[in-house]
Amino acid sequence: MLPSENPSPRAEYLLTTVDKSDLPRERLRRLGASALKTEELLAIILRTGRRGEHVLHLAERLLREYGGLGGLARAPHGELTRAEGIGAVKAIELQAAFELGRRLSVAAPGERPVVKSPADAVTLLSDMSVMEQEVMRTLLLDTKNHVLGIPTVYSGSVNTTVIRVAELFKEAVRQNCAAIIVAHNHPSGDPTPSPEDVAVTGEIVKAGKILDIDVLDHVVIGAGQKFVSLKERGLGFG
Questions:
Q1: Over the stretch 95-153, which tens digit does the pLDDT of each residue have?
Q2: How many angstroms separate the CA atoms of 56 and 46, rounded?
Q3: Are 60 and 44 in contact (CB under 8 A)?
Q4: Which 3 state secondary structure label does DSSP give 35?
Q5: Per DSSP, what are the bridge partners of residue 155?
Q6: Does 143 lie in the same domain as 128?
Q7: What is residue 31's three-state secondary structure?
Q8: What is the CATH number of the domain that holds 124?
């Protein structure tokens, strides 16, 4: 019987069925990570495909369906678990890898991004536009507006009854930051600031003056590329 007449049920979707020299892991070992295509790096994280779909084909399909690596990185956990070939474990591993990449982007002192506008801040926080619950983060900045970190300070309803301003500034004080930008999302997709958003902003700005930490803006992020800068609208910064 020829091998092609009765292939192993796993033959089409295990990475190990490819010639060893062509395996992404082997190529990375020989050539370095920068030599690999995006789908090859993604395949290493995924490890296996599914019945009838090789892991490299799975990686290519995911990148195509989500519009590239950025779209895949912004996908909510619940959506990833429903994607064909992913499941709960792979979704967690993917999100952990993407989060490490995001943190690395602000970790190297000489390569830290600079925030010069609300749009710059939103670019760094693009994953918040697809989150299923309300989240508040702070961009921690040095005297030249280099990003020192982007901690998440609250998850859930963001309003004056929940937020403790001291908690919001905790990491900024610890890292001796010169300034912060506050951001939170509206899962509804509409970034229009609520009265609670304006009230929170006023409290944060007052606390920043006491702590000698400039609050440069409070940005509300909606769906897609939509956002509102409360500083530009003069809300809470009076």
A1: 999 888 877 766 665 678 899 999 999 988 988 888 878 889 999 999 999 999 888 88
A2: 9
A3: no
A4: helix
A5: 135
A6: yes
A7: helix
A8: 3.40.140.10
